[in-house]
Amino acid sequence: MLLSVENLRVSYDQIRALQGISFEIDEGEIVCIIGANGAGKSTTLLAISRMVPAEAGTRMTYMDKDLLQYSADKVVSQLAISHVPEGRRLFENLTVMENLRLACFARKDDGVRRDVDRVLSIFPRLAEREHQKAGTLSGGEQQMLAVGRAFVSGRRLMLLDEPSMGLAPLMMKGVFDALREINQEGTTILLVEQNAQLALQFAGRGYVLENGHMVLEGKSADLLADDGVKQAYLGG
Amino acid sequence: MSLFLQNLVNALQWGSFYALIALGYSMVYSILMLFNFAHGDIFMVGAYIGVGVAAVLLAASAEGALALPPWAILVLTILLAMVLTSFVGMLVERIGYRPLRGAPRASAAITGLMIGIILETGNLALLGAQRIRFPSLIDTTVYEVAGVFITNTKIIIVVVALLLAAGMHFFVHKTKWGLAMRAMAFDYVAVPLMGVSVNGIAALTFALGSALAAAAGILYALAYPVLDPYMGIVFGWKAFVAAILGGRVSVMGATLAGFLLGFIEIFVAMIFPSTLRDLIAYSIVLLILIVRPHGFFGEPYSARLRL
Ligand SMILES: Nc1ncnc2c1ncn2[C@@H]1O[C@H](COP(=O)(O)OP(=O)(O)OP(=O)(O)O)[C@@H](O)[C@H]1O
Ligand SMILES: [Mg+2]
Predict the structure, then answer these.
(1) Distance from the Cα of residue A163 to its chain's centroid
(2) Structural domain harbouring A65
(3) CA B307, CA A86: separation in Å to the nearest integer?
(4) Which A positions 160-219 lie with beta carbon below 8 A of chain B?
(5) Any residues with CB less than 8 A from the CB of B48 and at least 6 apart, and which?
(6) Is B302 in the A-facing interface, judged by CB distances under 8 Å?
(7) Is A3 left (phi over 0), alpha (psi -120 to 50) or beta?
């Protein structure tokens, strides 16, 4: 088991966004969490990357380590967990290459050059725009850069928050093909999506989140066939 | 003509002080979204630390424990004072600002004012009211070139200031820490996702800015050796003006604006009675700011306050 989350509770001010959810991910898997707007998907990822505090009673174990002992930057630098946040959050004042180099900030191994080259070969459009400011990239190119950045910063677990957002179908296919390739090279992926169809086709397993509760889990094929899921998330 | 050139030389020296102090102001303001109003007092602290370091080095060299030529003592004084003052800067960040991260902006701003007062009066409490002289480390030599008098002190001041500004530019644009600083200036909320520690970069920013202020303090003391605990206040204000005028995250902008302020002040004083200097000089600066409200250079930043 790579990551196990037990009884995760997160509150914003007075509102509890996650009501004690539990789930786990094995090494090498692609797992998705689907749910409606405001269900708590982004909050779940933010709690894992330690960008929002979890309440007492929460247990999160990652590679037999207590995740709650790590600060947000250490989650990346010491645990190799990377997070592509909602809205990408590229550093728009920096170039494509600078964004990639920044993502390697904490890496001390000598594979940096190789991994950056790998990103540029997966996404040739980024290679052509190495010295362009990230803020001037198209939405799809920005998404590629966000994924590429996550690829070089955390090689073990990648948290993806709606990577399909704002992408044309062809661009989307490109990004998801690249993600599958990255997964086959050994990176575990936890994906969060509103687009349930897409997410369940891509992931091996899925969880359904509703108002801060995990209401369903199962193999993607089973969830795709589930009447409740069909009705609520797949448009009948 | 020689009057003009003479003033040009003086303006370069005067601008050097503003430029070095403005750099620290600008970096802290750009990267941490913080007006560090104690920065002028760090300049003062740097000068006083310089006095201490120089005294120790001079004593050691007089006793023969350390055979150093005068220029080496000057260089060592500058470097050691920069290092020591950077620790003062990090301390200010650690106890003054870090606990207030996330607090309303106004609270952080008055923190700076309070730390400034503490540094000034702390100095008074520690060293008493009598003025302290910076020891003379090198003998002044005057060169006359085409009717213009240039001292070796002036040359040292301008050259050191330009070297430090260039070094800062290199650091910000060519190193991975500089890269992290520029990223943080754009979106400090998202920076931890890159494995970068916000606290680490904040400390580094304060350390670098304070080191430059210390260098400014010692260079200032070479030209004007009588120090007092309040010497940093007006310098701080003016350097703050230069920092904003230069534009966000621009080492070049802050440096140029610092020199520009020096030029405006000196040339206004050349034409008008010196009592009117700041009145006229800062009216001009105000006009510049009205025309260029975002300063000379400067980068945009993300307005998103959370992930
Ligand atoms: N910073 C915040 N302050 C207050 N409430 C918040 C904050 N962030 C999220 N919430 C609330 O927490 C709940 C869960 O939000 P979250 O962003 O995790 O939802 P989501 O499943 O990602 O939704 P979407 O699909 O729209 O992105 C929502 O009700 C939201 O309003
Ligand atoms: Mg979301």
Answers:
(1) 8
(2) 3-88+153-233
(3) 7
(4) none
(5) B123, B127, B132, B217, B227
(6) yes
(7) beta
Q: Which residues from A are below 8 Å from B300, CB to CB?
A: 92-93, 135
Residue contact B192–A105, C-beta within 8 A:
no
Ligand 1 pocket (Cβ < 6 Å) reads A 12-13, 15, 17, 35, 37-43, 86, 194; B 306
Q: Which residues of B touch A71 (CB under 8 A)?
A: 192, 197
Tell me, yes or no, if B183 comes closer than 8 A to chain A by beta carbon: yes
- Could you identify the atom of ligand 1 that is nearest to the CA of residue A52? 1
CB contact under 8 A, A49 and B193: yes
| Residue with tokens 């990090």, as numbered in its chain | B90
Residue A71, min C-alpha distance to chain B (Å): 9
Class of residue A143 by CB neighbours under 10 A (exposed 0-12, middle 13-18, buried 19+): buried
Number of domains present in the structure of chain A: 1
Distance (Å) from CA A4 to ligand 2 centroid: 21
Q: Show pLDDT as tens, one digit a residue, over chain A (236 residues).
A: 999 999 999 999 889 999 999 999 999 999 999 999 999 999 999 999 999 999 999 999 999 999 999 999 999 999 999 999 998 999 999 999 999 999 999 998 888 999 999 899 988 999 999 999 999 999 889 999 999 999 898 789 999 999 888 778 888 888 899 899 999 989 999 999 888 999 999 999 999 999 999 999 999 999 999 988 888 888 76
pTM: 0.92
Return residues with CB closer than 5 A to ligand 2 (ion).
Answer: A 42, 86
CA distances from A122 to A90, A151, A170, B86, B180 (A): 19, 11, 15, 44, 25
Cβ burial of B107 (10 Å; 0-12, 13-18, 19+) is: exposed
How is residue A128 written in tokens? 């052509």
In contact, A153 and A49? CB cutoff 8 Å: no
Domain for residue A121, yes or no? Answer: no
Minimal-distance CA residue to ligand 1 atom 12: A17
Residues of chain A in contact with residue B194, where contact means CB-CB under 8 angstroms, are 73, 76, 102-103, 105, 149, 153
ipTM for the whole complex: 0.92
- Residue A191 counted as domain residue: yes
The beta strand positions in chain B, using DSSP E, are 132-133, 142-145, 148-151, 226-227
**Does the residue A128 lie in any domain?**
no
Q: Which two tokens stand for residue B53?
A: 């370091």
Residue A76 in any domain: the answer is: yes
A231 at interface of B, judged by CB pairs closer than 8 A: no
How many residues are present in chain B? Answer: 307
- Bridge partners (DSSP) of residue A16 are A11
| Rounded alpha-carbon distances, angstroms, from residue B164 to B118, B149, B194 | 28, 25, 29
Judged by a CB distance cut-off of 8 A, whether residue B181 touches chain A is no
Q: What is the CATH number of the domain that holds A43?
A: 3.40.50.300
Give per-residue pLDDT as tens, B283-294.
Answer: 988 998 888 888
Distance from the Cα of B213 to chain A's closest Cα (Å) equals: 27
